[in-house]
Design a protein that fits this description.
Oligomer: single chain
Number of strands: 6
Radius of gyration: 17 Å
Structural class: alpha+beta
Shape: globular
Largest sheet: 4 strands, antiparallel
Number of helices: 5
Strand content: 15-25%
């Protein structure tokens, strides 16, 4: 049986990446592992700043599901990265010339304990400085 994991391992680029990671003592993750074991613990649990270039595109590439946002986020997109209900989806919305990103409200992320996250799109920063 051919699975996504076995397909990834069979690609020649994977061997190059694995060799590089061993040589430089880096950890490789499958996408689900990265999202649940690195991304959410850092950006949501610890409040670490998430920095990217064209962040809306980057986040959309690792999303499992996408949908149109509702209510106060109408006109934006809700990007679900994880199947874990404690990891809130990310809302990406265009405001003026730039995009805004925040964690959505969930049963676990609401009220006084709501955390919207810290996101920085360096492409927008670069455009402002030029």
């Amino acid at each position: 049986m051919l699975t996504a994991t076995s397909l990834i391992i069979m690609l020649p680029e994977t061997t190059i990446i694995q060799d590089y990671s061993k040589k430089h003592d880096l950890t490789l993750y499958l996408l689900d592992e990265f999202v649940d074991e690195v991304f959410y613990p850092e950006t949501f649990n610890f409040g670490t700043l998430c920095v990217g270039f064209n962040l809306a595109f980057d986040i959309s590439r690792i999303a499992k599901r996408t949908g149109e946002s509702r209510k106060g986020n109408k006109g934006g997109f809700t990007l679900t990265l994880s199947d874990n209900p404690f990891n809130p989806p990310i809302i990406s919305r265009k405001l003026g010339q730039s995009n805004t990103h925040k964690f959505s409200t969930t049963k676990q992320n609401k009220g006084r304990d709501y955390f919207s996250g810290h996101f920085l799109d360096v492409q927008t920063v670069g455009e402002v400085l030029l």
